[in-house]
Specification:
The complex is a heterodimer of chains A (443) and B (324). Chain A contains 14 helices and no strands. Chain A is mainly alpha-helical and 443 residues long. Chain A has one domain. Chain B starts with a helix and ends in an 11-residue tail after the last helix. Chain B has two domains: 140 residues, 3-Layer(aba) Sandwich (D-Maltodextrin-Binding Protein, domain 2), CATH 3.40.190.10; 89 residues, Periplasmic binding protein-like II (D-Maltodextrin-Binding Protein, domain 2). Chain B is elongated, with a radius of gyration of 28 Å. In chain B, strand 3 and strand 4 form a beta hairpin. Chain B is an alpha/beta fold. The relative contact order of chain B is 0.18. Classes of the chains: A mainly alpha (443), B alpha/beta (324). Chains A and B meet through helix 5 and helix 6 of A and strand 2, strand 5 and helix 7 of B. Chain A: This is Secreted protein. Chain A: It comes from Actinoplanes lobatus. Chain A: Keywords: Membrane, Transmembrane, Transmembrane helix. Chain B: One of its GO terms (biological process) is amino acid transport. Chain B: Keywords: Signal, Transport.
């Protein structure tokens, strides 16, 4: 096929490598001064333009990455969090409402419906911005969410008719949520987090190419001044001095702006993105544990599996290496109080859970349910509510930090690209103005 | 002229379509989306069939004969198991909270009600003279024997089939309700017998004797197991299995929850249900059998049966007591 031959043809028509230049010593010996000046001036201009262009390109690339963190990946990650949280909360709320008996409390019903509204809204927005792999996962959620809600409504109807079949439907619904919907949306969240983290890393790395070109340009400029000083016997060449000053300014500005920007991004990653991941996992573990706690009671004596899952999830949440402990270690000073309060509530929850289990295991299901669904300030629902609110609060702060640091990082780079274009032109002008009179002397 | 106009407009449309097509980004195809049917937790399809345990030969119905006259309520013979329970103040009974008509929660009151709950209350009445001196403990099928062996309950009334294998570990009262394994199907599916279920899926609870009976049918249905019979009904409603097969009294409870299903088929097993009692409490076995004798004789059994089951299972006489 001709298309396969094409590259070979291209290779044959490729321009031959440029003829190798002689060593500087031989050039100097063979060449007269004006020609040498020409060559040096041209070289400096080319180097200056190269360094300037590379720096401008690097700055623009970073700005684009930071812009993406602030306006695309960041928000998608927040959508993924919303989707995940809304689904997990719907699951926990449905189970708790079911437990409350025949006609569930209006407040819990509303909360469940709000969760679904939030989930579908987040799903729609996330689907629009997602890549192929994430879109496939989101489609699993989109396909199965109506099935899930159908099962929950069936469970409610049977519950109202007073037949035990309702509990079986609720268990099936929860299994669908915990085994299919939540894992799919967790993967979407993880991949958006990875993307944000990757962009933050890429935009805060050390710019090797730019640094190298800048150093070479600076060295060449210095060498040119030594050369001109020797040949013309004038110590200072104003044009070249001006070019050096311009280069110094460009270097200082770039270094300062890029360092500040990188620092902001690193802060955004450490105290923002990484903390968001940990806190989101803490929220997931606590919501799923809550759902399983209720399901243990819904199963009425057959809930050993759910209790086991609860134990695993609560350990993930509150263990010594659990999500809350990690969040506490990761979080900056100001966030710790909130996370610590979440940890205290989680400990209180475990205590109350122990009491509920003791009652239920002792055969007193009624008392267990009464304790599990009581709504007083010191009761399980309120304790869990405060735990959840503390995690959400900390998450909001961390999410906002990702945003703010991205804005600050973008702010540090503002005007740098335009400034560098002007400075590059200034450098070129300095070189040209510095060499023109010297070359003119030999006419 | 007209031809020229038509050609011109066609050209325009083509151009417009070409532009539009080239402009739009590739969108994921959504027309092939399908929804997978979910399953309850812990479904085994096909189910693992529990091996038939080598059980000693016996008459599983034969229990211990009551001795003398039944002691009056509140006056249990000193040193007896019943006296210990009376001293404790409550009779602890292992029951099912999820078996409609047998043991379930009344949606209005939240109270446990059902045929087996009433049986338990009669036992409490016989000991204390008060049917409310009973503590119900919801247990799973698999928990029944361990709970009795560990004395965590005084008795189990939970459609527990009397088998020679189980007699090795626990004692049973005389039969309090007869049951046979049959089929629950969707009305109108045309399934009448196990013979109609060749290669079709039939559901029962994990590790139950029902699973074994399903697997042993000559028509070779595929056994599917779940954690509870309710999950089987969910699968039947969702067309994921074609029948549920367990004892008919439990099937009646399932059919009562869904009027589009019916209990059919020739019984394929004989499964007498007895009250499970810790092996060593022989005095308790004799006492419970005495209470059952009285309930059969004075119409209490029939009253309770009629209250919960007659409408579903038809009129029935109390099972005849068999003694060793």
């Amino acid at each position: 096929m001709p298309t396969q031959l094409a590259p070979a043809e291209v290779r044959t028509t490729e321009t031959p490598p440029p003829p190798s230049a002689g060593t500087p010593a031989r050039v100097r010996g063979r060449m007269n001064t004006p020609r040498l000046y020409w060559l040096v001036a041209t070289g400096l201009v080319v180097l200056g333009l190269l360094a300037g262009t590379a720096t401008v390109a690097a700055v623009r690339e970073r700005s684009a990455l930071i812009e993406d963190v602030a306006s695309a990946s960041g928000p998608v990650s927040v959508d993924a969090q919303t989707l995940y949280r809304a689904l997990a909360d719907a699951d926990a709320t449905a189970a708790t409402a079911f437990l409350a008996g025949g006609a569930e409390p209006a407040k819990l019903r509303q909360r469940y419906l709000d969760d679904l509204a939030r989930a579908t809204a987040a799903l729609t927005v996330a689907l629009r911005d997602a890549g192929d792999a994430d879109a496939a996962r989101l489609r699993v959620v989109a396909d199965q969410l109506p099935v899930y809600t159908g099962l929950v409504e069936t469970a409610r109807s049977y519950q109202r008719l007073g037949v035990p079949l309702g509990g079986a439907y609720l268990r099936e619904a929860s299994a669908l949520m915990q085994q299919t919907l939540l894992p799919a949306s967790a993967q979407v969240f993880d991949s958006t987090q990875r993307r944000v983290g990757g962009e933050q890393r890429d935009a805060s790395g050390f710019p090797w190419l730019v640094a190298l070109l800048a150093l070479v340009t600076a060295g060449a400029l210095g060498a040119a001044q030594v050369l001109v000083a020797r040949r013309s016997r004038r110590v200072l060449n104003p044009g070249l001095v001006a070019a050096s000053l311009v280069l110094t300014l460009a270097l200082l500005w770039s270094a300062a702006a890029l360092t500040v920007s990188a620092n902001r991004l690193e802060t955004g990653q450490r105290d923002g993105t990484d903390l968001v991941s940990t806190l989101a996992n803490a929220g997931r573990a606590s919501l799923q544990a809550r759902a399983n706690e209720s399901l243990t009671l819904v199963a009425r004596g057959g809930g050993a599996e759910f209790e086991k899952t609860f134990g695993k999830q609560i350990a993930e949440l509150t263990g010594t290496n659990g999500w809350l402990a990690s969040a506490l270690a990761q979080a900056p000073e100001g966030d710790r109080e909130l996370i610590q309060s979440a940890r205290d509530e989680a400990a209180r929850w475990q205590e109350l859970h122990g009491q509920v289990r003791e009652l239920d295991d002792g055969g007193d299901w009624d008392k267990a349910v009464e304790l599990a669904t009581a709504t007083g300030d010191k009761d399980l629902s309120s304790v869990f509510g405060r735990l959840d609110a503390a995690i959400i609060g900390a998450l909001d702060i961390a999410n906002e930090r990702v945003d703010r640091q991205a804005d600050a990082a973008a702010g540090a780079l503002r005007g740098l690209a335009a400034g560098l274009v002007l400075l590059t032109l200034g450098l070129v002008a300095g070189v040209v103005l510095g060499f023109r009179p010297r070359i003119g002397e030999y006419r | 002229m007209r031809t020229a106009k038509v050609v011109a407009s066609l050209l325009l449309i083509t151009l417009a379509a070409g532009c539009g097509g080239a402009d739009g980004t590739v969108r994921p195809v959504a027309a092939d989306a399908t929804a997978a049917v979910p399953r309850p937790v812990n479904v085994q399809d096909p189910a693992e069939v529990p091996p038939a345990a080598a059980a000693p030969d016996c008459d599983p119905r034969a229990s211990l004969r009551p001795q003398g006259t039944l002691p009056k309520a509140g006056a249990m013979p000193a040193g007896s198991t019943m006296a210990t329970i009376a001293a404790k103040g409550r009779l602890v009974v292992g029951i099912d909270q999820n078996a409609y008509l047998f043991g379930f929660r009344d949606p209005e009151t939240g109270e446990l009600v059902g045929f087996e709950i009433d049986m338990a209350r009669e036992m409490a009445r016989a000991i204390f003279g008060d049917p409310n001196r009973v503590q119900f403990r919801a247990i799973t099928t698999a928990d029944r024997i361990p709970m009795l062996e560990d004395h965590k309950v005084d008795m189990v009334i939970r459609t527990m089939t009397m088998t020679c294998e189980r007699w090795q570990k626990v004692s049973f009262s005389t039969e309090y309700i007869a049951s046979r394994q049959r089929l629950l199907v969707r009305k109108g599916d045309g399934i009448k017998e196990f013979a109609d279920l060749a290669k079709k899926k039939v559901c029962a609870t994990r590790g139950s004797t029902s699973i074994r009976t399903i697997a042993e049918q000559p028509s070779q249905p595929v056994p599917v197991s779940t954690d509870s019979t309710l999950d089987c009904l969910v699968l039947l409603q969702q067309h994921q299995v074609d029948a549920v097969s367990t004892i008919d009294i439990l099937l009646a409870g399932l059919a009562a929850q869904d009027p589009t299903t019916e209990v059919i088929g020739t019984p394929v097993s004989d499964e007498p249900a007895g009250i499970g009692i810790p092996k060593e409490n022989e005095d308790m076995v004799r006492f419970v059998n005495g209470v059952l004798e009285k309930m059969r004789a004075d119409g209490t059994w029939t009253r309770i049966y009629d209250g919960w089951l007659r409408e579903r299972l038809g009129a029935a006489d109390p099972p005849v007591a068999v003694y060793r």
